[in-house]
Amino acid sequence: MANPAPGGQNRLPLHVVMAFASTALPVAAIGLVMGVYLPRFFASAVGLSLAAVGGAFTIVRLIDMALDPLLGMAMDRTRTRFGRYRVWLSIGAPIVMAAVYMLFMAKPGITEFYLIGWLLVLYLGISIVTLSQAAWGASLATGYHDRSRVYGLIQAVGVVGAVLILLLPMALGPKAAGAAGVHAMGWFCIIAVPIALFICLSLTPERVATDVAKERVTLNDYISLVRRPEMARLIFADLFMALGPGTTAALYLFFFHDARGYSHQQTNFLLVLYIAAGLVGAMFWGWLAQKVGKHRALMISTVCYAISQSALMLIPPATMPLAIPGMISVGFVSSAFILIVRAMVADVADEVRLETGKERVGLLYALVTTTQKIGTAITVGISFTVLDLVGYNAAEGAVNTPAAIRGLELCYVFAPIILVFFGGAAFIGWKLDAKRHAEIRRKLDERDALAAEAGLLDAVAGASVAVQAPH
């Protein structure tokens, strides 16, 4: 299934990686609409207030952030003849489809409780799909550098999904304006989910470690993982790297249309370029992580993000020739954050399994997906509340005061820079590099081989062989 790579590590065939990454396409498309279009859709087309929309997203995220650890524990305990993560992926897909329909097709007159309820269902489905894919990827790709490659391709496929969802309203023309565009995006996602699921489940194998302990996963396991220095750093960094781009996603349409004077068509086009730049960026940052190490690549990306994000304020309003390279550079840089952190979590999972003999991949990924949810809750809730306090009016055709526009600009441009810098600082002095991980994988592979040999002897001769971890 895997081809040898330099350094003795296995390299997954490209067709396996692409099939596995296919589910990232609809998930990324849904995530983009949720972060950029859905808040505005409910605040303008559906008729809810900014405070109500921001409050709904915050409430849902605060409730939902406790869900991922429970899902991670359940995944780590799952044993079926169909595999562990493919079962969860199959459960999450129909939940996502139902919630997308109820939210993306919402009509004027719904209440905040309707929004909260179906957001909870959607986030449940998305959590199951993204968490099962992330944990499955850690067991699928075992090499330090191959993980950068695999998670980079997952990110790239997600970018394709985001670009397609952005191009859809543009392809449909004026009839897809406003609410009609969100409806079209909803149908795209509903159709894409089962297609991607079929491709992934049909072509992707699933590995299960031979030395996995069968005991229950408890709250103490969760606490012990959070207290690990490497994991604590990743959680902190992932939170702040989610807060930065999360703030810009929630305010993007308001910033470029109302504060910078671009038309709706120009705003959509700039967003397409921003997302599309992430396709090249994902490949570049995955490559750079293999050359200089994942933690160094992340620190470099935070500095580049600060430079490119600051440049947006230097561009004169309604100046497309300058806005185009500006948005491309920001999209290129910000594509590094999620993919490298996810690859680093897989390395920590190997270290945990070596030291404890326990498979905790699902729970480890639950920790970082929870930080993503916390980041989204804080950005949407706080940003929309601040805009409401400064008097910003989100209604179509509304005229805002200079003070309201200035508050919008400060929230969009400078707050994310500070947040992302905090995330990059977390990797100063990082120890789990390629050399350390190669030693961990060597010991795990030796132990797995001994365990397989012991199992074979047990089956053939009834012998009982004690397996000791190599030192």
UniProtKB/TrEMBL annotation:
<dbReference type="InterPro" id="IPR039672">
    <property type="entry name" value="MFS_2"/>
</dbReference>
<feature type="transmembrane region" description="Helical">
    <location>
        <begin position="362"/>
        <end position="387"/>
    </location>
</feature>
<feature type="transmembrane region" description="Helical">
    <location>
        <begin position="41"/>
        <end position="64"/>
    </location>
</feature>
<feature type="transmembrane region" description="Helical">
    <location>
        <begin position="297"/>
        <end position="316"/>
    </location>
</feature>
<keyword id="KW-0472">Membrane</keyword>
<feature type="transmembrane region" description="Helical">
    <location>
        <begin position="116"/>
        <end position="138"/>
    </location>
</feature>
<keyword id="KW-1133">Transmembrane helix</keyword>
<feature type="transmembrane region" description="Helical">
    <location>
        <begin position="12"/>
        <end position="35"/>
    </location>
</feature>
<feature type="transmembrane region" description="Helical">
    <location>
        <begin position="184"/>
        <end position="204"/>
    </location>
</feature>
<feature type="transmembrane region" description="Helical">
    <location>
        <begin position="322"/>
        <end position="341"/>
    </location>
</feature>
<feature type="transmembrane region" description="Helical">
    <location>
        <begin position="407"/>
        <end position="432"/>
    </location>
</feature>
<dbReference type="InterPro" id="IPR036259">
    <property type="entry name" value="MFS_trans_sf"/>
</dbReference>
<dbReference type="Pfam" id="PF13347">
    <property type="entry name" value="MFS_2"/>
</dbReference>
<protein>
    <submittedName>
        <fullName>Na+/melibiose symporter-like transporter</fullName>
    </submittedName>
</protein>
<comment type="similarity">
    <text>Belongs to the sodium:galactoside symporter (TC 2.A.2) family.</text>
</comment>
<feature type="transmembrane region" description="Helical">
    <location>
        <begin position="269"/>
        <end position="288"/>
    </location>
</feature>
<feature type="transmembrane region" description="Helical">
    <location>
        <begin position="234"/>
        <end position="257"/>
    </location>
</feature>
<keyword id="KW-0812">Transmembrane</keyword>
<feature type="transmembrane region" description="Helical">
    <location>
        <begin position="85"/>
        <end position="104"/>
    </location>
</feature>
<feature type="transmembrane region" description="Helical">
    <location>
        <begin position="150"/>
        <end position="172"/>
    </location>
</feature>
